[in-house]
């Protein structure tokens, strides 16, 4: 369809978290650098940002960057009980037969962590959408993960990711013990207007196309409509490309963006 018309080899604005399409704004670079440090030091880190700002994509890029030095365990649905969380982690650490009892779970996880330490592999637990965690008990279980440690360092790194309201949740006095364990935290902001232009061109090039497909006024409208949130940019830009293809328009302008925006933001 529109890919050949615009000289593209693949979809430039897919919403899947593909690290090849991760545009590294200054905020994304800093977020990734902080997470790399947290993993290297086996620390507990907090990353927040508006929905669609690229938190999950950054975590996938982190996994690619760290390579075989780390083993990642992703918890993508944190609406769990504390024992269920430990089962997910045990499975991610490739514990052979995951036991049902909590004490045996903890024992198996401990054995797996020490084995990976001997193999010089760092386990990394990534908890996504942490604002959905249902109760204090699960937050306490996450805090207790940092008790797996040697005399001089933790045996695993934990990365908590969520939307901005997660920070409000964690301000409660009951979470003071958890806050004290968080050594690195970062809030990922939306893109600026200049970064929106660079983002559009970057993803067009990553998909095999030529930059400059969107006119300056089109970039301005996309920025205004999306508020600089990458996932919204992707939806608006895709619909604009589809509209342009349907009308045989090779250069996307603001008028075309506005025409496509109703469907994009519905």
Mind explaining what this structure looks like?
The protein is an alpha/beta fold and 266 residues long. 50% of the residues lie in helices and 12% in strands. The radius of gyration is 21 Å and the shape is elongated. The protein starts with a helix and ends with a helix. The relative contact order is 0.17. The model has no long low-confidence stretch (mean pLDDT 91). This is AAA family ATPase. Residues 41-165 form the AAA+ ATPase domain.
- Label the structural class: alpha/beta
Overall spatial form: elongated
Find the CATH superfamily of the largest domain: P-loop containing nucleotide triphosphate hydrolases
C-alpha termini separation? 23 Å
Low-confidence stretches: none
Which strands sit side by side, in order, in the main sheet? 2-3-4-1-5
Stated plainly, the CATH topology of the largest domain is called: Rossmann fold
The major sheet is characterized as: 5 strands, parallel
Q: What does the radius of gyration come to?
A: 21 Å
CATH top level of the largest domain is Alpha Beta
Integer tally of domains: 2
The CATH architecture of the largest domain can be given as 3-Layer(aba) Sandwich
Per DSSP, the total helix count is 12
Domain AAA+ ATPase: 41-165
GO molecular function: ATP hydrolysis activity
Protein name: AAA family ATPase
Organism: Geomesophilobacter sediminis
